[in-house]
Write a structure and sequence with these properties.
Elements: H1 3-19, H2 29-41, H3 56-65, H4 72-79, E1 89-94, E2 99-103, H5 106-114, H6 125-128, H7 134-139, E3 143-146, E4 158-166, E5 173-182, H8 190-226, E6 231-235, E7 240-244, E8 261-265, E9 269-276, E10 279-284, E11 294-300, E12 308-313, E13 316-321, H9 324-334, H10 342-350, H11 356-369, E14 374-375, E15 380-381, E16 386-390, H12 405-413, E17 420-421
Parallel strand pairs: 11-16
Antiparallel strand pairs: 1-2, 1-5, 3-4, 4-5, 6-7, 6-10, 8-9, 9-10, 11-12, 12-13, 14-15, 16-17
Length: 423
């Protein structure tokens, strides 16, 4: 059907639905369901209501912590080469409907700005009505919205196709990728195309998950080989990397309130949970009630080219090589047993207490590998963990590439080269 003719028909369908009359054609089921939600929720069909825009700092914080951030290359490669950049916009929104990334020609971006289709905007269905972002989030399936299928009349000159992206580890909804443009850009194949790219993004997540399980397996295998009883290494979602003393299982349900120490787990019963890089070692309880999961951490900064964090627990020890930035952060936390807020770490690391977004993003990455060893609010080493810092013999060689004010001050103050245990 011609785009303009289709738009006229859909306007008649929408008008009849709003008036409670018999429509000239039935709306598509997913659109009819959305319209019913809009009518029940009191969304005004002819008033463009907008929610508060995120600030630049709030948007950047969401970007840094969003799992979709690492998928941008896949989404761009799958969509942008085939888009007419003067007519289409590629948008990536999080699970709340907040637009985090947007790409397209400056002229079409200006048109989108007039609709409030901008980075930081809230395109939740309950805020702006039926649309390719918000409705796909509610329906949890790909949705194409053409012209007057948009519940709010100011959006009738646009068409959009959005597909949700899920985390294959637990099915969690991560967000939506959407392609939008003026009315003339409508094509029935657009939805299938966007959906295929969303599936490619999910496939990339699956590949990365398998790679992370393999890394966890390489760390856990030597520990499991020394254990006499039943034990299993799992990631944070319960997916199994390695087992000993029991039949292999793909996944073990983990309790919601999960952390280091004694915990009851289906299939194993009472267990001791110990943190590993990217996961946990669960061993069927054979230790005394006073056993601790992670008793000691040694932060070895004696060799600038290879900073290591070694964790000692009831089942043995494992080491994690640290990036320069993560070595800085762990050193600062080791020097402050009571902990540091994001603003305090930002001041000590950058000399600027406002750079909290970067601190939170980096600490999130550190805690993925040191779960159970690090706590937050404030950021600190866990209360029962003994921390030892092994410094270089020459105080001036402490983290030599660091420009952090607090590290520079530590170099000037000197150090005991034998290491400084934290009380």
């Amino acid at each position: 059907m011609d785009a303009r003719e289709a738009a006229r028909l859909l306007k008649g369908v929408r008008a009849a639905a709003l008036a409670g009359d018999r429509p000239p054609a039935a709306p598509r089921p997913e659109i009819a369901e959305s319209w019913r939600r809009m009518l029940a929720g009191g969304v005004h069909p002819d008033r463009d209501t907008r929610s508060r825009m995120l600030s630049a700092a709030e948007t950047e914080e969401r970007r840094q912590t969003s799992p979709l951030r690492d998928l941008l290359p896949v989404l761009r490669e799958g969509l942008l080469p085939s888009l007419d950049e003067t007519l289409h916009i590629m948008v990536v929104a999080d699970a709340d409907g907040r637009l985090l990334w947007r790409e397209g020609h400056a002229s079409i971006l200006r048109n989108a700005d007039r609709l409030g289709f901008a980075v930081g905007a809230d395109w939740d269905e309950a805020v702006v009505g039926t649309n390719g972002v918000g409705t796909a989030l509610v329906a949890r399936r790909p949705v194409q919205v053409f012209s007057a299928e948009h519940f709010v009349s100011s959006h009738h000159d646009w068409t959009c196709a959005g597909a949700p992206v899920h985390d294959p580890r637990d099915g969690q909804l991560l967000g939506v990728v959407d392609v939008s443009g003026p009315l003339a850009t409508m094509h029935p194949a657009t939805l299938a195309w966007v959906s295929s790219v969303a599936r490619l993004a999910e496939r990339e997540l699956r590949i990365r998950h398998l790679e992370s399980l393999e890394r966890l397996r390489s760390v856990a295998a030597p520990l499991l080989a020394r254990l006499p009883g039943r034990a299993v290494a799992v990631d944070g979602h319960g997916w199994t990397a390695a087992v000993t003393g029991l039949a292999p299982t793909e996944r073990i349900p983990l309790p919601k309130a999960f952390g280091p120490g004694r915990v009851w787990v289906p299939q194993l019963g009472d267990c001791l949970a110990e943190p590993l890089p990217g996961g946990w070692l669960l061993s069927a309880a054979q230790t005394t009630g006073g056993a601790r999961a992670a008793a000691r951490v040694v932060l070895d900064l004696s060799r600038p080219e290879a900073c290591l964090a070694t964790v000692y627990g009831a089942s043995g020890s494992w080491s994690q090589e640290l990036s320069p930035r993560h070595a800085e952060l762990l050193f600062l936390l080791a020097e402050s047993p009571r902990g540091r807020s994001a603003a305090e770490l930002a001041r000590e690391l950058f000399g600027d207490p406002t750079r909290t977004v970067t601190i939170r993003a980096e600490m999130s990455r550190v805690r993925r590998n040191l779960a159970g060893v690090l706590a937050h609010r404030p950021y600190r080493f866990a209360q029962d963990v003994e921390v030892e810092v092994v410094r270089p013999g020459n105080p001036a060689a402490l983290l030599p590439h660091s420009t952090a004010p607090a590290v520079i001050e530590a170099r000037r103050g000197g150090a005991d080269p034998r290491g400084t245990p934290r009380p």
